[in-house]
Amino acid sequence: MSSSFEKFQKRRVITSYFSVVLSIFLVLFLLGLLGLFVINSKQLSDNFKEGIAMTVFLKNEANDSVRTAFNEELKTAKFVKDFKYVSKEEAAIEHQKTLGENFVEYLGANPLYNSFDIHLKADYVTNEEISKIETRLRKNEMIADIVYSKQLVTLVNDNIKVISKWILIISCVFAFVSVLLINSSLRLSIFANRFIIKTMQMVGATKSFIRKPFIQRSIFLGLIGSALAIFALIGVLVYIETTFPSLGILEDKMAITIVLVGVLVLGIVISWISTYVATQRFLNLRTDDLY
Hints:
By secondary structure, the chain is an alpha+beta fold.
């Protein structure tokens, strides 16, 4: 009978520990994902901005020397991320693929212009900056026209501002909820041992002596949960980098390290504080209040 009861107690303790570790793992994993998203949100928005192309069309009179000079100008321009020269013949082929018919034969001539597709650096993808760049480029008499989507630039910048604001709000709310969830899990674990705490107190044990094993155990469980969350986050990072290498999500290693270390520290600190508060609460209760 005694053996059965001991086995039951051990299973209950193991289940309690498992639930605490699982709670810490899930909460810190989700919080870590949010942290990684926050630190990479600028890079993601920059990648999207830099995907918007400005097309500069050259007049038909522009010869090879003009194109070479403009090419060199773009190489040294601080606002240019990258660019590509597209000849009128290449443009005609692309249009034929899109339209599904040879419009050059139909018209009897190629009406398209030689052009440069320019991708600007993210900091310059605003209507104000692009207008300045456009004014500067149009000073070149060999430029026939400059085309870019003003509406798309406005839409992207406005949406990024809104998304950034909501990310900040969600981060604060989620961090608060995370602390509450971990705290609740640890309090339930301490609650199961409230009679042991009161018994130790009644035989003369000091509060610090009683708290010590509970805090040590919760810190150990917090370490396990944090370690599992860190391994899971690294797995997610590797998967995203492998699947979407163009995002360059692993480039900012310092920021990633800060998030992972933050997850570890947060797991330990929250576990320690929650256990300290929970044990202190039961230490201050009268025996009758334990029921």
